[in-house]
Structures are given as structure tokens and as C-alpha cells.
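Record type: monomer structure entry
Structure origin: computed from sequence
Chain ID: A
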Amino acid sequence: MSLIEAREITKVYSLGEVDLKALENVSVTIERGEFLAIMGPSGSGKSTFMHILGCLDRPTSGDYFLEGVSVGTLLRDDLAAIRNRKIGFVFQGFNLLSRTSALENVELPMLYNGVPAKERREKSLAALKTVGLEGREGSHPNQLSGGQQQRVAIARAIVNEAPIILADEPTGNLDTKTSIEIMELFEKLNKDSNITIILVTHEADIAAYSRRVIRFLDGHVVSDELKQ
């Protein structure tokens, strides 16, 4: 059973009297443990596809299966549970709560699951150690560099042991050196923990870290290349 199977996904947005087809008959299968990049220019459909994979949006037609479960038939609360337990999100802007510590930011997904405080702390400290931030658990985002903030976001993404990380332009706000460090961290998580990494990027040097590249154009997959 594949980890992710998208079958003939179409997404149409209604803008007044105009229908905008963001995706048309997109079919993609992703196996557990893959590290892949999704590329394409603005308006190509890559972000819409990621939102559907992340259960942040529903397709207009087509089927999406996550670990064999048809996601399109699930209720909103069930979708929220999947996002919390199965998918870790990493965004360009970090999306950290500014008034809370690194530790508290990492604990957030477990708060929604009702995990006891002692277990939350232990797991969050372990996640921060994994991303190289041991000893910085008390720091607030404004006390951390951009790269360190993204490491906190990655720790938050892995703390529930989700099998998938969806990373949307995760190096977009980082300099070259820090971008390399973040991509090497993704490589390590993929190799050591078999986490499936799905990376949306428009930068070829960032996509080069992946082992598979899917390119979108005008709502269609125009190439799907597996590196040798």
C-alpha cells in the first residue's frame, strides 16, 4: 500500500462568474520514505496540490488516499486529526508563536492531542535535540536566528512522529549557508527516521537535495523524474 495516492485530482476555484482550474486530472503516487520536490512557476498548481496533500483543502473531483484511507470522505474533525498526527508542516515564514518559548511552540501539536505535560516536555526536548537546538528550549523566536526558528518549526513537525513532512519553500527566508544546513537536516530526518519529505520549491539548488522531482505547469504534471 502506497503512503499517498492521488487519483485524477481536479481543483476548480469559482471566482464570481469565472471558474479557475488550478489542477486538472493530476495523479501522483508517493511511497513511504521518499524525498521529493514539487516544482513549478507561480500559478502552476504546485501549492494547491500541496494543500490537498496536507488536508488543508479538498479536491473538486478525484480521490486522495493517505495510508489507504480515502481522505475526501472524512469529516472536518477527522481531517484535523490527520493533519495533527500524520503530517508535519514547515513553512517559509516559520509560523511560530512569538510570545511563547521554543519548547512551548514544539509542544503545540501535542496539546491538541491531550498529551500529559510531562510527556509533552520530554518529547519536545528530544525533538529540539534532534534538530540541533539542545539548550535553547527557553528561547523565544525573537531571540533566535532565522535558521534556528526554522529548526524549531521542524522540531514541531516531527514531535508527533508524523510519517510525512510537507515543507513549503522552507528556505525562502534564509541565506545560502543556513539553507544548506536546513536541507541537510531534512536529509538526515529522511535517512535516519524514514520520514517522507515533500518539498515545494522554485529553486533548483534546493530541489537537488531530493531524489525525485515532480514539475507542475498550468495545473498539470509535466514531468516526474526519479534521480539515479
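Annotation 1: The mean pLDDT is 94.
Annotation 2: The first helix runs from residue 46 to 53.
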